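Late entry, evening session. Most of the bench is empty. Finally got around to the prediction I had been postponing all week. Sequence below, unchanged from the version circulated by S.P.
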Amino acid sequence: MANIETIIRFEKVSFEYGVNKPILDEVSFSIRRGSKLTLMGQNGAGKSTIFGLITKSLEPEDGIINIVNGVSIAIARQVIPRSDMDLTVREFFQKCFSKKIYDIDVKIDEVLEVVHLRGHEKIHDNLVKNFSGGQQARLLLASALIQDPDLLLLDEPTNNLDKAGVEHLTDFLKNYTKSVIVISHDALFLNAFTEGVLYLDIYTKKIEQYVGNYFDVIKDITARVEKENMKNAQLQKTIQAKKDKSNEFAHKGGRLRLVAKRMREMAEELEDEIVDVRKEDKTIKDFTIPAQPNLIGEIIAINSYTTMKGSKSSKHKTNISLKKKEHLLLVGPNGIGKSTLLQRIAEGNSEGVNIKEGVRIGYYRQDFSTLNFNDTVLDSLASGILLSGESVNEQRLRATAAHFLITGDMVHTKIGDLSEGQKGLVSFARLVLQKPGLLILDEPTNHINFRHLPIIAKALDQYEGAMILVSHVPEFVKQIKIDQTLTLG
């Protein structure tokens, strides 16, 4: 019966990127038909690698991946590839199929209805790059659903989605009858539908399989760590007692020396029983984003802005003024124009917005396009510190990178080869070095391990320059001092 239900099985699968960069070490787990699983793990652990092995875009170094004949698989990745941005919606969906689909417009309309991305009659001819981040997230989901797969792989599907989008996706997954594996750092979203967790341990490089949701997993892991610590403490106590006795008998000569030898042997045997206590995911260290010095008076004034609804734009008047230590939250549904407004402000070409001359802008983009993907981490951080007017010091760059869990030889990794979460951490490291006077943040929680979010929120809350924030994560925003809110719509 188990063989009938199991549609995918990993048997001692190992994988590494390049030389001496192991990601998976003899990983074994199985996926049953109709199961709804979460794939969790620290940023950079290799979660997307697991998806790549399932879809066969990657090949294992060793081990076997058994996929039942006829099982179809579709994946909604974290981001739309840059090479697809100039495609029309029709071309984007046609790429999902190996052969031409002649009634594809009908299929597109049906699947866009499912993901609540309704548009006008010419939506099929719209370019993908013209959609907002949240709308692109819906396109990614729809591109997987249109294939009607037996196994649906979703990589950070809630990124950029507004509250309505997350609620709709949650309801969809609750009612989904086929198999699904989701990578996400949103525990509340996952707990709404998850029945099992695949936990990729970044230290052992193995998969731990659990029944239940994320909170169940944390409870199990905590109990296991406590049990392992208790066992080790008892062993250490017994080992020390035998060593003390051995030392005592060793000096008395005769038959007691033999007893001492046996005591030492028993202590060594017990030392072999000490278990490696499971390590917890590391979190980034507390950090501060220093503000540009000598900020006086009004830093930015927003007198008007433009919103989008479909293909129609509307201009609105407002009266927003930010000085140092003042934070503005932009809110509004997907597609209204939040990211466009932030981009224009950052580029200095937004009509109706005035930024004080000489103010340095730190811009965190949700697609990380402010980063040069061909730069190494060190190169990227060096360019960040140069923006502050300071000289490059490699020791300082490495120390800053280490704060964000980018250590050792990882600093020589190209930005494009990092996970999306690691790109986000590098972006924050650059802001620390840049020392901006105006901080612009577009969905800074995307791709970031939820363990890091309270630390990031604390840093933003304490930021002493002017700040404009867009985030669809209420729990994150609640931790940050917000002085003004501008609702686009």
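Two things to note before I forget:
The chain is about 35% helix and 20% strand.
Residues 214-250 form the longest helix (37 residues).
Will write this up properly tomorrow.
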